[in-house]
Amino acid sequence: xxxxxxxxxxxxxxxxxxxxxxxxxxxxxxxxxxxxxxxxxxxxxxxxxxxxxxxxxxxxxxxxxxxxxxxxxxxxxxxxxxxxxxxxxxxxxxxxxxxxxxxxxxxxxx
Length: 110
Prior knowledge:
By secondary structure, the chain is mostly helical. Helix content is 71%, strand content 0%.
């Protein structure tokens, strides 16, 4: 899940850097507003076609999006968490939260 969070976080960074709106992204890769939000959080898987549309829209290399930006991730995604001595533990906690949210969504919808 960590890689999905970093991927979504990097998409959000690129969108902000280019001053693109969420609505532009939604229209470009056929998503609704909630799905764009889930994409940024690393909670949405894209089809290969959507990934191709995304990289074209952002004019970014897929490898760059997958690599992410450690500083941006730390500042924007996990800024509300206290520091962990081991970052793997933090990601483990985030994985548990994501799993809970998946179960909650499956049981009660969004």
